Amino acid sequence: MSQNAGNRGAEEETILNAGSSLGEAALSSVRRTVAGPESEIRKWRRLFDANAIEVNGERYLDKDSFITAVAPTASFTKIRADQYAILFSVADQSSRKLVSWDDFTVFQTLLKRPDADYLIAFKFFDVDGSGTIDFNEFKNVFASTLSPDALPFNFDCDWVKLHLGKRDGTHVLGYNEFTQLMKGLQDERLRQGFKYLDSNQDGFITADQFKRIILELEGHKLSDTILERLPTLCALSPGGKISYSEVVAFHNVIKSMDMVERVIREATSKSKDGRISQDDFLNYSARATRYGLFSPMEASIIFHFAGRGDGRQRLTLLDFGQLLDPQWQPPIDSAKPTTTVKSIFETIAEMQNQRSTVVGQLLYKNSLDCVQKVFRNEGLVGFYRGIGPQLIGVAPEKAIKLTVNDFIRTNVSDPETGRIKLGWELVAGGSAGACQVIFTNPLEIVKIRLQVQGELGGIKRGAGHIIKELGLFGLYRGASACLLRDIPFSAIYFTAYSHLKKDVFHEGYNDKRLHFTETLAAAAIAGMPAAYLTTPA
User: Fold this and answer.
1) Rounded distance, CA 249 to CA 243, Å?
2) Full-model pTM
3) CB–CB of 467/475 below 8 Å?
4) Dihedral angle over CA of 7, 10, 12, 14, nearest 10
5) Helix ranges, 357-421 (H)
6) If phi over 0 gives left and psi between -120 and 50 gives alpha, with beta otherwise, what is residue 322?
7) SS in 3 state form for 268-280?
8) Nearest to residue 251, comparing CAs of 206, 298, 207, 295?
9) What is the pLDDT of residues 85-121, one digit of tens each?
10) Closest by alpha carbon to 276, among 244, 237, 319?
């Protein structure tokens, strides 16, 4: 009898230790969650240490590990990872094909500068490190980055002579002069490309030739849908060809895309129905800027591509998404011609603005910043946008979830002891989570649509309008993602909750009934590992 009591005591001690360990793990997870943002130096150090290799007892980044450390994820950018190798030569200050921790810190600090794109480009072109760039440096570096099938560039043109003089080597560019050269380089490439392809010298090129120019110069800035429809620009004028004026106008739209987005966002938000026409766009642009920023031809091009060929219709902010957002559709895995200008300027921009969705600013820096911006932009009601569908659906959602879990547990438990195997506990919880998606998915679709309206601007639609617009199948779009989240969450949660009550708080031992605080603690702690482990889904 005493031996059995001793065994039971040992079992209880083991259970208590397990519960304590589980509680400590949960509390540790909470501390990490509520901790402040990681400092920049620690973040850089973590990136460096995670990718560095050991050379002669010291840790360095070679070209491949440097690219891995600095390149954004493939899903974020249309720029290929290998193009970030251009930045390696800038970070490698000692020209030893290796980047030390000090080099990496200097490079990351450089990226924080507002003129980082120009400064890094200047360092890349300044091969001899003299602090100036002459004609030969500009020509050799730029020519080395052009692919064999790229449009040719004439270095003997008047534009280059105006910047670097007619006599080789006598006129060198300091940093400020170089920035102006780089700012106008793409315009000169556009002019030379059009002249090269205009073999008849009649001021027109074909649709395919126009697409070639844009793919080489600006393809990384446009969504795949727009790239596929580039040849349709010839429909704006009779003759089936594209004039130089239209090419320049399209190029100007791309260069001014930040202002295009700003005008569209503000104009649609102030429109009664959330839609604008070409005239509305031009009128608002004229009022919002000191000078007329966009020509009628440029406005026509914007509405042609946003309106899928019909530029006369009134469009919402969402209609312009395919033009404003390069990631509107998944990028095509085909290699496109690249240039130094695109590689340096755009790779730096991608690295500086990885979390940016509104032009020129980070969306949310941390949780507190999110709260402040939601309150400032939408007021207190912004925190409760989409709560209506949640309140309507939470009752049947929880009812079916709890019912399914209890039903399975009851039918698979040992009828004599009431015990249930761990595997069946997980099955019961997982099945409850799967059934929950029947109610959860439509609710989350509608809730997210209602919440997103606060950021997109324009007219606010009710839940009924969204349900009617999406239809039955639309309400279950993304259900697979919900299943990947809710099945493991419920399996972990219900199992942990049951064991916490029984093994940690000893429910049922000597007919013990748990206090409210103990039940609440069990539920809260059970939710921590369930939420933490299912966060990726």
Assistant:
1) 10
2) 0.53
3) yes
4) -140
5) 367-378, 387-412
6) alpha
7) HHHCCCCCECHHH
8) 298
9) 778 888 887 888 898 898 888 888 888 888 888 888 8
10) 319
